[in-house]
Design brief:
Blueprint: H1 2-28, E1 31-45, E2 48-55, E3 64-67, E4 71-78, E5 86-89, E6 115-121, E7 127-133, E8 143-149, E9 163-172, H2 177-187, E10 196-199, E11 216-219, E12 224-231, E13 237-242, E14 247-252, E15 255-262, E16 264-267, E17 272-278, E18 285-293, E19 306-312, H3 353-361, E20 377-389, E21 402-408, E22 411-413, H4 421-426, E23 460-462, E24 465-468, E25 473-480, E26 489-493, E27 498-505, H5 510-513, E28 524-525, E29 527-530, E30 534-541, E31 546-552, H6 555-558, E32 563-568
Length: 590
Amino acid sequence: MAKSGAMKLWLSSAALLLLCCFLLPSALAEDRFYEFVVQETLVKRLCKSQKIITVNGQFPGPTIEVYNGDTVAIKAVNMAQYNVTLHWHGLRQLRNGWADGPEFVTQCPIRPGGSYTYRFTIQDQEGTLWWHAHSSWLRATVHGALIIHPRRGLPYPFPKPHKEFPVILAEWWRRDPIAVLRQSMITGAPPNVSDALLINGQPGDLLPCSSQETSIIPVVAGETSLLRIINAAMNTELFVSLAGHRMTVVAADAMYTKPFDTTVVLLGPGQTTDVLVTAHAPPGRYYLAARAYASAQGVPFDNTTATAIFQYKNAAPGCPTTSGRSSSRSSSGHLGRPGPRPMLPFLPAFNDTNTATAFSNSLRSPHPVKVPGPVTQEVFTTVGFGLFNCRPGPFCQGPNNTRFGASMNNVSFQLPNTVSLLQAHYHHIPGVFTDDFPAFPPVLFDFTSRNVPRPLWQPVKGTKLYRVRYGAVVQIVFQDTGIFTAEEHPMHIHGYHFYVLATGFGNYDPRRDEAKFNLVDPPSRNTIGVPVGGWAVVRFVADNPGVWLVHCHIDAHLTGGLAMALLVEDGGNELEATVPPPLDLPVCVL
């Protein structure tokens, strides 16, 4: 009897322990609530005061810091004069496209004076993501970091850093960015380039009237910091480098990577990269700098250099300078902030595609992964520019008296303006979209030729979706074109992470290029840079029903039509279907 009682007690204890193992993660998860007030705010940059749209009066906006497993509610209150939506870039939003945010894709906009609460649960994601407006060009100033820590009590897969710092890269216009876009939409010309690049909202020491506000990253000698780098720029891919230090890449797009050391990081708009930096240099002040990677030949770009300062605590006078000697002048060469001029890092040339390619090819998953297969649905899509013919005049000021555009598989994507695509799909509203996006280019040609025949330059406007069966293994080949000019395109897929199997230059040829597929440890991303004059192959399982936007994250290209959307069907049961829309979903104006 004693043995029997002991055995029952042991079994009960084991069962209780097992139950605790299942319940503990959910018990440790928390509910988080934020209020985001979208409002006009007066700021000063580049010697000029101007009003911009912000969240809670902050630029960049508030950092959201949560844990894997947390449930988040963010009430967006629109006190600005423009319609707005918010997107949580890189969050999968499983079965919950209503919280994804792109205007007229998953919701109608929040009108001035209105509000909407985005509700979602962080499900098996951790790392650096970000949030931004997904309406017109508001994201130029409406953006911020979204940091997801591992579940409480669980460590990083790398030594715990002493400190963590968001590093948000962006662009600045001396005009209202909405006015910049509107001018382009009226004239048909590409939008004007920005006037400065920013790090954490500031241009830095190399731009006028900026040295006093240059962003500072304080460090202690011997300690390791985690820099969470986010490219929130509208239209510019960026090289980032830190003088006097090496960086160890440990994650990209909130997916851990096999660690590797580098002196230069490349980020396309939308991408994030986490790097560890150990403060092992002589105590002093060092520039963290960002400069454009401009892959398109002959296209204007913002050629400024943004800087922040990696500053050692108690740095002694006489620490390293650009000339190797101390300086009594400020870091900008102007009297103002005391201290020696920081050391500038080496940055690649703006057209250094070799460095860009080498960095991208270094990214790997930390362990072997099970790449989904075999492929059951495949899309081969061109991504590139187009020019619309028009009558010469004030509305026809694009290249060679045309209107600038862009397309995927010759379809220049047009958003609806009365109801969102997800609502039209969910409620079976006819006439909003068609599901006949072509799985292959309608005309085959030498895609990357510099002499593409002119009849192929004009795309067709349409709101075409591509229908995907739930559970399908989807492979997408993104192929750049030489129409007008070739350029690297950072392609983002909402609602999904995907494996990047391969990238290359020239025209994709499956008979030749499938041999290059990395089926062992490919990186997982939510935004992939399709090489200039080249291609990229990605693969994923369609396990997230809904309507999910696929687009170039260069907003000048997105507004030109470089987008499409996946319509992922519901699966066979309730847990494989889109959840019902929330009651406070913004009302559409029909």
